[in-house]
Amino acid sequence: MEIAIIGASGYTGGELMRLLLHHPSADIVAATSRNLDGTPVASVHPHLRGLTDLVFRNTEAGDIDADFVFLAVPHTAAMKVAGTLAERGIRTVDLSADYRLPKDVYEKTYGVTHEAYFEAPYGLPELHRDEVRGASFVANPGCFPTGATLAAAPLAKFAHTIIYDSKTGVSGAGTSPSATTHYPNVGDNFNAYKWTSHRHLAEMKQEAARLGSNARCYFTPHLLPVNRGILTTAHILLNEPTGQDEVEALYKKFYADEFFVRYQKPTLAAVRGTNFCDVAVESEGDRVVAVSAIDNLVKGASGQAIQNMNLMCGFAEDTGLRSAGMFP
Ligand SMILES: NC(=O)C1=CN([C@@H]2O[C@H](COP(=O)(O)OP(=O)(O)OC[C@H]3O[C@@H](n4cnc5c(N)ncnc54)[C@H](OP(=O)(O)O)[C@@H]3O)[C@@H](O)[C@H]2O)C=CC1
Ligand SMILES: CC(=O)N[C@@H](CCC(=O)OP(=O)(O)O)C(=O)O
Q: Which residues of 270-290 are buried (b: 16+ CB within 10 A; e: fewer)?
């Protein structure tokens, strides 16, 4: 299957190529960049040197010649080309936020007008597999909502309050430098940001509601001095006290058939570079602490996007995604 990546010079674009180069049914035929036309992909993504001869091209969406497209561009840039790809019948996974929320919620959360809205399945396969399967356009979830929602999903409908406390690596901010990501501000340091107002809370609330939960949801992200990974501690305040054995059994049953969700004490090292989400729970009566770990660039973005592509195209869901992490 011929694949094009729009926005291939960024972190998620590089990660899509790293993973797709080992996918038996994927042939990457185009890697677009507005500014790097003619530049070898390996000059920006040095880990891919020797594995691909691809060269960036400044190709418009209307001129893309491929069976499948990944949109790895910022929100608002994706909506400018999504319609063109859909009209041309090119199946697409959008890694941006543009199609994850209803139009009114999106516009309120992101403070912009949506120019080209249509409904799309929310590509968290563990919860929405049937909608993703066979779809022609899928909205890939945000990185924080992926780890947070998988941490709370089995208990969400039994909770009155869920507090998500997440710690993320810096690659979540993309390749553009900023004061926040400047090394002396990040290295040997640790801080919370957007304490009560992060835009990903809207996705977390949406997914809790879809799980039948009336719980109030809260979210605070923190910036870790590491490149990759998100560790989320979810404090799930239950309507009724529930013991450890029961809670643990519930999680193991909920995820029993999910290859990419493993029940074990989460650490970032065990999931780095992989599409796994590790989850475990500890009960304290009417409070359960659920912890999850993902790699923000893999299960939080490009790996999940390929998982969605596999479902959309009828490939085995784990195709190209079975690699283990590097431990330690
Ligand atoms: N990083 C992460 O962990 C995650 C990211 N995402 C989402 O995935 C998308 C890509 O993220 P990421 O790879 O980190 O971002 P980057 O900033 O690293 O890369 C995005 C690329 O898109 C291109 N681009 C930037 N602005 C525009 C524009 N206005 N129109 C067209 N192309 C543009 C740039 O390439 P060039 O200048 O060469 O054209 C840039 O390299 C974003 O929507 C992000 O929110 C989702 C989950 C996790
Ligand atoms: C460290 C860091 O800055 N992380 C980003 C992750 C957001 C992201 O990638 O998400 P969208 O796809 O929804 O834009 C942030 O907190 O905004």
A: bbbbbbbbbbbbebeeebbeb
The answer to whether 128 and 190 are in contact (CB under 8 A) is no
Topology classification of domain 2-120: Rossmann fold (3.40.50)
- Chain segment 14-72, per-residue pLDDT in tens: 999 999 999 999 999 999 999 999 999 999 999 999 999 999 999 999 999 999 999 99
Determine the residue of 59, 71, 73 to mutate for testing ligand 1's pocket, defined as the one with the most ligand atoms within 8 A of the Cβ atom.
Answer: 73
The number of the ligand nearest the C-alpha atom of 39 reads: 1
Q: What are the boundaries of each domain within the chain?
A: 2-120, 144-296
pLDDT at 94: 98
Instruction: Provide the total of helices (H) and of strands (E) in the chain, helices listed first.
Output: 11, 13
At 250-275, the pLDDT tens digits run 999 999 999 999 999 999 999 999 99
Superfamily of domain 144-296: Dihydrodipicolinate Reductase; domain 2 (3.30.360.10)
Measured in Å, residue 220 CA sits from the centre of ligand 2 at 13
Q: Which residues are catalytic?
A: 143
Give me the helix-helix angle, 201-210 and 103-110, nearest 10°: 150
Cis peptide before 46 (omega within 30 of 0): no
Does the interface predicted TM-score (ipTM) exceed 0.85?
yes
Report CA-CA distances (Å) from 191 to 113, 156, 170, 206: 31, 28, 12, 27
pLDDT tens digits, 179-211:
999 999 999 999 999 999 999 999 999 999 999
